[in-house]
Specification:
- Helix 7 packs parallel to helix 10.
- The longest helix is centred in the last third of the chain and has 42 residues, at 193-234.
- It is elongated, with a radius of gyration of 21 Å.
- It has one domain.
- It has a 4-stranded mixed β-sheet with strand order 1-2-4-3, sandwiched between helices.
- 66% of the residues lie in helices and 6% in strands.
- Strand 3 (115-118) and strand 4 (126-130) form a beta hairpin.
- By secondary structure, the chain is mainly α.
- The chain has helices spanning 16-43, 48-73, 85-98, 131-136, 139-155, 157-186, 193-234, 237-251, 256-262, 289-305; strands at 76-78, 104-108, 115-118, 126-130.
């Protein structure tokens, strides 16, 4: 009965705007990297085997192991229904409500109240909540957060964000190895060396900046989409709004050191973690709290009229 589910066959509200943005983001980032690798190959002709091998190897590794890498980096460890009955029970209820396969369930031992989902597809997906989140939220609020995260899995935007984010990192790695491998062959006396020293880091910086902006634009939209889909699935937008308000308020009480450790993974989290002096707020991966609450207020009014 469930063997041939498509991305729109769960009961999560479909989002054509999200699908269009995911397709266009992957197209432009793919195009950007074809051009980037092509320019590196043209500039560092002697290093082309190293560049191609590294680019291909890292991309394949990231695609197949992205869920494990992300989960490990954020401290997630899988838990059984016996170890976390409330968390598993909430995920079971939501998956039955959404008519989707149950992902693996994990807990991260962190006081930062948050949750995230990873996985390149539904079969390899994982949903994780931190101990800080589980301790602070009421059952209805927790279900709202988990519905938000499960919608990321259902819409497959987790995989797109993971791959798109990784390509920015790849730009820096390829450039470093390309420079090292290329200069070994070009030689210090070559007149092109001075040009390459300036040109390649500059190209890499431009590629990184464009990929960063593309992923940020997608990330903000996908969070609003997940709020909407989660609220419509549970029929309780007020519970999700309460969880958002509580989690955001609690962030101010978390030690700066813990927030700094969480910041690199903000694109995956339910709510962004910022240390007080962070410049990340300016280019946040998430919409503002006000934007998210305003949307949930509109959904609440619509459901009330219905």
């Amino acid at each position: 009965m469930h063997s041939s589910r498509s991305s729109s066959s769960t009961r999560f509200a479909p989002d054509r705007g999200l699908t269009a943005r995911m397709v266009s983001t992957m197209f432009f980032i793919g195009l950007l990297y074809v051009v980037f690798v092509g320019v590196l190959l043209a500039l560092l002709r002697g290093a082309w085997p190293v560049i191609l091998l590294l680019a291909g190897g890292l991309f394949v590794a990231q695609f197949w192991f992205s869920d494990r890498i992300a989960a490990f980096s954020m401290g997630a460890h899988e838990v059984t229904p016996e170890q976390a009955p409330e968390l598993h029970g909430a995920v079971d209820r939501l998956c039955a409500l959404a008519d989707m396969p149950k992902p693996r369930v994990a807990i991260a031992d962190s006081d930062v109240p948050n949750a995230f989902a990873t996985g390149r597809n539904r079969k390899n997906s994982l949903v994780c909540a931190t101990t800080g989140l589980l301790r602070r939220l009421e059952p209805e609020e927790l279900e709202g957060v988990l519905a938000h995260e499960l919608s990321h899995v259902a819409h497959r935007d987790v995989a797109v964000m993971t791959i798109a984010s990784f390509l920015g990192v790849l730009a820096g790695i390829i450039t470093r190895v390309g420079l090292w491998g290329g200069f070994r062959r070009v030689g210090g006396r070559d007149s092109n060396t001075a040009v390459l020293v300036v040109l390649i880091p500059l190209i890499s910086a431009v590629v990184y900046a464009i990929s960063f902006l593309l992923t940020r634009l997608l990330s903000r939209y996908r969070e609003l989409s997940a709020d909407r889909a989660g609220a419509l699935l549970t029929g309780r937008p007020s519970a999700l709004a309460a969880a958002l308000t509580k989690v955001t308020g609690e962030m101010a009480r978390i030690p700066t050191r813990d927030l700094r450790q969480a910041e690199p993974f903000n694109a995956f989290y339910f709510a962004p973690a910022f240390s007080k002096e962070s410049f990340g707020r300016l280019l946040s991966s998430h919409p503002t709290l006000e934007q998210r609450l305003e949307q949930l207020g509109r959904i609440s009014a619509q459901l009330g009229r219905a």
